[in-house]
Automatic annotation (TrEMBL):
This is Acetate kinase. HAMAP family: Acetate_kinase (MF_00020). It catalyses: acetate + ATP = acetyl phosphate + ADP. Belongs to the acetokinase family. The gene is ackA. The active site is at D147.
Length: 394
């Protein structure tokens, strides 16, 4: 079964064609900077690798470019659009409506649209990807995997805010949780690695967006992001947890507009606001040259993660393993070191020499006598989506 995975963002479309059940990746690619005259198209198969700059005005034009690559006589991988059996779309917000992988119909699309108010940066672009794919791949079964779905198991006591009940009951104000596909994927790999299903895990996804999930017996029990993907850990440009009164103070006393505050909290805060840099590699380099803001920002970032580890260990009453994943979690030995420092009370201890080794494989970076395992597990959201689409259609 040929499953095309589409992750349509505000200015990009990332895609992978995966054969299931063999999990063979046939091709992988992305179009970035859609809407500009110098959009970049990457496309890679086992035999070919192409990167070109085009003018790509719209998502439709982007998907047409992708289709022509897939069908190309020399470097293509399919003969006809009908060779794509199913398309798995990543959609960020499924609200309280969807906690399962779902076949797309008109109602699903209208709910995704309705939920755009909760994820304005993501849902409209995700929906555009669906509508375009339906036009181009007319015979493929279209399926959606929601980032929020995995957190459907979070108990009410953890997901409900202490606000008047009607806001929860009538208006859907609750913590939804995000990065579910990634947390599910790495926690399943962790359970396989540990040869156990009944585990207490903390999954730490550190990419441009960052989140942490308490997972018991394979189920999400609590999660750091909330009503929107802005709560919790310090991220590339997002503040994570703040006292909400700061917003009123900025508007009423400092003269910001609400839109300005929203922009500031989502796009100008986090590591960028603290250091002037968004990419952790730059921050680590500056810190190693003595930049005090960068040193402090790294410490703040790790401190926040440690607080959540403490909280989730308490709420699960135990811990078998913590998992580091995504761009920073997989690659930054420094961030892992800062998070794991002096955690012997929690029974985990990093082995510095294992931590410094680089690998694309699942690896254990704790000392041999550390009771709690420290695992580094490369995430693969596309493969997880392909697995879920395949399971739904079989
Ligand atoms: P996204 O959330 O967009 O999928 P990624 O998971 O790709 O993001 O993570 C992006 C982050 O990973 C960036 O902050 C980048 O600096 C960081 N990163 C990637 N490689 C390294 C590395 N070798 N060392 C430190 N940070 C890294």
């Amino acid at each position: 079964m040929n499953i095309l995975i589409i992750n349509s963002g505000s200015s990009s479309i990332k895609y992978q064609l995966i054969k299931m059940p063999s999990k063979k990746v046939i091709c992988v690619g992305a179009i970035e900077r859609i809407g500009s005259t110098d959009a970049i198209s990457n496309y890679k198969t086992d035999a070919n690798k192409v990167e070109k700059i085009y003018e790509i005005a719209s998502h439709k034009a982007g998907l047409e470019r992708i289709t022509s690559l897939l069908l190309d006589a020399e470097i293509g991988v399919i003969d006809s659009t009908e060779d794509i059996d199913a398309i798995g779309h990543r959609v960020v917000h499924g609200g309280a409506y969807y906690t399962e992988t779902t076949l797309i119909d008109e109602e699903v699309k209208s709910k995704i649209k309705k939920l755009s108010t909760l994820a304005p940066l993501h849902n409209p672009a995700n929906l555009l990807g669906i509508v375009m794919a339906e036009e181009v791949f007319t015979t493929a079964t279209q399926v959606v995997v929601f980032d929020t779905a995995y957190h459907g198991t979070v108990p009410v006591k953890a997901k409900k805010y202490a606000l008047p009940n009607e806001l929860y009951e009538n208006d859907g104000i609750q913590a939804y949780g995000f990065h579910g596909t990634s947390h599910k994927y790495v926690s399943e790999i962790a359970n396989e690695y540990l040869h156990k299903e009944n585990t207490k895990l903390i999954s730490i996804h550190l990419g441009n967006g960052c989140s942490i999930t308490a997972i018991k017996d394979g189920k999400s029990m609590d999660h750091s992001m909330g009503f929107t993907p802005s709560n919790g850990l310090i991220m590339g440009t997002r503040s994570g947890d703040i006292d909400h009164s700061i917003i009123y103070y900025m508007v009423n006393t400092l003269g910001y507009s609400l839109d300005d505050v929203n922009e500031l909290l989502n796009k100008k805060s986090g590591m960028l606001g603290l250091t002037g840099f968004n990419d952790l590699r730059d921050i680590e380099e500056e810190a190693s040259n003595g930049n005090a803001n960068c040193i402090l920002a790294l410490e703040m970032n790790a401190y926040r993660i440690r607080k959540y580890i403490g909280a989730y260990t308490a709420t699960m009453n135990g811990l078998d393993a913590i998992i580091f994943t995504a761009g920073i979690g997989e690659n930054s030995s420094l961030m892992r070191q800062l998070v794991c420092k002096d955690m012997d009370y929690f029974n985990f201890q990093l082995d510095d020499s294992k931590n410094d080794l680089r690998s694309k494989n699942v690896r254990e970076v704790n000392t041999t006598d550390s009771k709690v395992k420290i695992l580094v597990i490369p995430t693969n959201e596309e493969l997880e989506i392909a697995k879920q689409v395949y399971e739904l259609l079989h």
